[in-house]
Every structure is written in structure tokens, then in C-alpha cells.
Design goal:
3-stranded antiparallel beta sheet, 3 strands, single chain, about 100 residues, 5 helices, Arc Repressor Mutant, subunit A, alpha+beta
Length: about 100
């Protein structure tokens, strides 16, 4: 078996993304955005029946950790999944099993 050198920076980055998605509300947000390509904060908090501040908090975490991205359109900010980031997370999990 070939040994790989452990890169602490990459390990922390992966752990950070996994922590970001390891919350029931954030998993729910990802699920919504898988079904609908992009949504604004209002659509998200109304769909999940949570407070706007809570939705914004979770969206900010997901965006900061590179799982989501956003674009502005007038007064609205639309959030969408960064598929490359999610694919990397899923690949990592699959390799660990």
C-alpha cells in the first residue's frame, strides 16, 4: 500500500467543509438548492419555515466554506451550489468508506 503524505492544510480545509454541511438545517438548504438551481433568502426561509436571520446565518456559513456561491440581482441575493466543492466532498467521503 502506498503511503501518502498528510497535508495538514488540505485536511483542515476538508474538515471545515464537512463541519459546514454537518448540520440538519444546512443539509436541508443544500437539498433545496439541489432541486431548484438558485433561490433567494426569502424563498429559502419560507420553504424551511425558519426565521430569516437563521437562514442568513446558515447561508453565510455555507458560502464562507465554499459550498455555496451567490449573485446579486437588484435587492435580491440568489444562492446556488458550487457543484465542484460538493463533488469533492462526496468523492472524499466515498474514498473513506
Amino acid at each position: 500500500m502506498a503511503t501518502q503524505k498528510l497535508d495538514p492544510k488540505k485536511l483542515e480545509e476538508a474538515a471545515s467543509k464537512l463541519r459546514a454541511i454537518a448540520h440538519p438545517m444546512r443539509i436541508a438548504i443544500i437539498g433545496l438548492l439541489e432541486k431548484k438551481e438558485q433561490m433567494n433568502v426569502t424563498e429559502i426561509y419560507e420553504s424551511l419555515k425558519i426565521e430569516q436571520a437563521s437562514a442568513s446565518h446558515h447561508l453565510n456559513i455555507l458560502k464562507t466554506k465554499g459550498v455555496l456561491d451567490s449573485r446579486r440581482a437588484g435587492k435580491n441575493t440568489f444562492y446556488f451550489l458550487k457543484h465542484e466543492a460538493l463533488s469533492q466532498i462526496i468523492d472524499c467521503i466515498n474514498r473513506c468508506n
